[in-house]
């Protein structure tokens, strides 16, 4: 059953997509989500960023289940 | 009895004032088992970029994740070094050149634990906390800060 996912965006990723949050139909996995984002925002293709699910960085393709908090994180530059 | 530690807010709106730092040092005078403190202060540098000169950094963060991660790092450092105290403060929003944006403060019985823990904390904060610095330039442009 399709459902909507809520995505938070930060730093230069937020700048590129023009918003710090967006909603889309759940593409099912983190890799599918990336492909969907690249289609919607071609500027992201050349950008380095990671995904976090429920505030944990994901290292490989991961299923996105309902209610997960998804975030797009460019390289950190605190300090 | 071991004191239970809970996630603390590390974020400060704007620059970290020298008064806050002095006050934090003074607050440790009652802890007489401390023999050494180590302090790291990060300051905004007026870098010259091809696009212009840095006049400020505007910090944003994924705050909930940063606080969870900071807590995890804090626990790991407490586990690794015999520390009495540890404090971490990071700015959010705009901090001008010359102002302080990061304050890391460790205390222990003897200096080495405080110094090593402070060093490791700073490295981990910069590498692992989801915080981003937007460098504001004197040309009305900006560039995204890159940590080296």
Automatic annotation (TrEMBL), chain A:
Pfam families: ThiS (PF02597). It comes from the Bacteria. CDD domains: Ubl_MoaD. InterPro entries: Beta-grasp_dom_sf, Mopterin_synth/thiamin_S_b, ThiS/MoaD-like. This is MoaD/ThiS family protein. It comes from Algoriphagus lacus.
From TrEMBL, chain B:
Keywords: Molybdenum cofactor biosynthesis. Pathway: Cofactor biosynthesis; molybdopterin biosynthesis. The keyword rRNA processing does not apply. GO terms for molecular function: molybdopterin synthase activity. Heterotetramer of 2 MoaD subunits and 2 MoaE subunits. Also stable as homodimer. The enzyme changes between these two forms during catalysis. Belongs to the MoaE family. GO terms for biological process: Mo-molybdopterin cofactor biosynthetic process. It catalyses: 2 [molybdopterin-synthase sulfur-carrier protein]-C-terminal-Gly-aminoethanethioate + cyclic pyranopterin phosphate + H2O = molybdopterin + 2 [molybdopterin-synthase sulfur-carrier protein]-C-terminal Gly-Gly + 2 H(+). PANTHER family: MOLYBDOPTERIN SYNTHASE RELATED. It comes from Algoriphagus lacus. This is Molybdopterin synthase catalytic subunit. Signal peptide: none annotated. It is an enzyme of class 2 (transferase). Its EC number is 2.8.1.12. InterPro entries: MoaE_sf, Mopterin_biosynth_MoaE.
């Amino acid at each position: 059953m399709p459902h909507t996912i809520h995505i938070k965006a930060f730093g230069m990723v937020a700048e590129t997509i023009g918003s710090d949050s967006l909603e889309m139909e759940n593409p099912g996995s983190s890799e599918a989500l990336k492909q969907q984002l690249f289609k919607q925002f071609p500027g992201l293709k050349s950008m380095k960023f990671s995904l976090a699910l429920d505030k944990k960085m994901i290292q490989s393709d991961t299923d996105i289940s309902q209610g997960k908090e998804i975030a797009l994180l460019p390289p950190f530059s605190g300090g | 009895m071991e004191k239970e530690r809970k996630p603390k807010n590390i974020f400060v709106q704007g620059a970290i004032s020298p008064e806050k730092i002095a006050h934090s040092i003074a607050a440790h005078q009652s802890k007489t088992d401390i023999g050494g403190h180590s302090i790291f202060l990060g300051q905004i540098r007026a870098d010259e970029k091809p696009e212009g000169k840095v006049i400020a950094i505007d910090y944003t963060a994924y705050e909930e994740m940063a606080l969870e991660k900071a807590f995890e790092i804090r626990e790991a450092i407490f586990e690794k070094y015999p520390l009495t105290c540890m404090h971490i403060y990071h700015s959010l929003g705009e901090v001008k050149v010359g102002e302080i944006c990061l304050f890391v403060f460790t205390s222990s019985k003897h200096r080495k634990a405080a110094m090593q823990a402070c060093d490791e904390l700073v490295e981990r904060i910069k590498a692992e906390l989801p915080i981003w610095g937007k460098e504001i330039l004197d040309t009305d442009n900006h560039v995204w800060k890159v940590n080296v």
